[in-house]
Amino acid sequence: MNRERYLEISARFSQSRVLVVGDLILDQFVWGRVSRISPEAPVPVVEVDRETQYPGGAANVARNLREFSDHTAVLGTIGQDADAETLKRLLADEGIDITAIQQDPAWRTIVKTRIIARHQQVVRVDREQKIRPAQSQSAQALASIDAMLPRLDAVIVEDYGKGLIQQAFADEITARVRAAGKLLAIDPNPQNPLQWNGASVMKPNRSEAFAAAGVPHSEPVDPVEKDEAVMEVGRKLMEKWNCGILLITLGEQGMMLFRKGEEPFHTPTRAKEVFDVSGAGDTAIALFTLALTAGATASEAAEISNHASGIVVGKLGTATVSPAELLASFSGPQAQ
To answer: Does the annotation mark 282 as catalytic?
Structure first.
């Protein structure tokens, strides 16, 4: 895709209205340096320089959308604790609509704390408690979706497997979004094997796709078009999920796009450096969906999503891509 076509599509980004439904997480980063080993145990001592916090999980998908769209909303459940208030504040400060977020005193807001020393992750500490939402909570969430659907262009379901997305809830979301004629994009989680059926877009990564298709893991093959295992997985998942578009992210190999009645389409990675892959999938589904709502073809949306993901993996922490960065990636010699 050339720069002019990207500009034509991206000019419509700001008017796209997207709701993100999924597990909301607070990402914390403790940044420091290591100069010695602890005398108490054979572990490094991290001398802390600073700490940062960002919306993570489904909230990070919303952050990526908000960089480009003025109309981004998020729906999920958090606790009634200090971490919940921090997460809400961070989202609100970025201009994301948080009115559909539910707070439950029985829930503990999920927090992932990463300790980073000299650009290397030393350890990650997760604080979470998986709780199935009460029927009343699911009903309230569906009522919020019903109220917002007439104004939306798309709904993204980001399943981090933390308890929010259950089968009955997934079925109701799918039925309602399809009935409204809006685009539905799903980022599934193999640890929460739900029966998705009829979504507009399904976006697993390579390992998730193999697990969902029931195909044994195999090492990647170059070129990807000759990777028979990936092609088999694509065919099986298109049939299993009955989706219009299947986008499998392949890490350093880029992305493979499957569509009904068309040949698979491969777009190679645009990453120049890889520092941190956390959150790259969030960026991928956000920009792919946004591009589709702005009139891009599926292959054009894959190119845009691939460029955006290639930028994000070059950053440390829970990162997003800016409009300026994405435009610049379509202006270089490899933009074609």
So the answer is: yes
Distance CA 223, CA 177 (A): 37
pLDDT in tens, 20-74: 999 999 999 999 999 899 999 999 999 999 999 999 999 999 999 999 999 999 9
Cα pseudo-dihedral 87, 88, 91, 95, rounded to 10: -170
Sign of CA dihedral 142, 103, 283, 13: positive
Q: Which residue do the tokens 């202006």 mark?
A: 331
Low-confidence ranges of the chain (pLDDT < 50): 276, 334, 336
Task: Give whole-number Cα distances, 54 to 29, 187, 286, 321, in Å.
Answer: 8, 20, 17, 14
Is CATH 3.40.50.2000 the classification given to domain 3-24+58-109+132-329?
Answer: no
Active-site hit among 23, 83, 159, 282: 282
Residues with Cβ within 8 Å of 276's Cβ and at least 6 positions away in sequence, in order, are 121, 313, 315, 316, 317, 319
What's this model's pTM, rounded to 2 decimal places? Answer: 0.94
Residue 14 DSSP class: G
Report CA 189 to chain centroid distance, whole Å: 11
* Chain segment 233-252, per-residue pLDDT in tens: 999 999 999 999 999 999 88
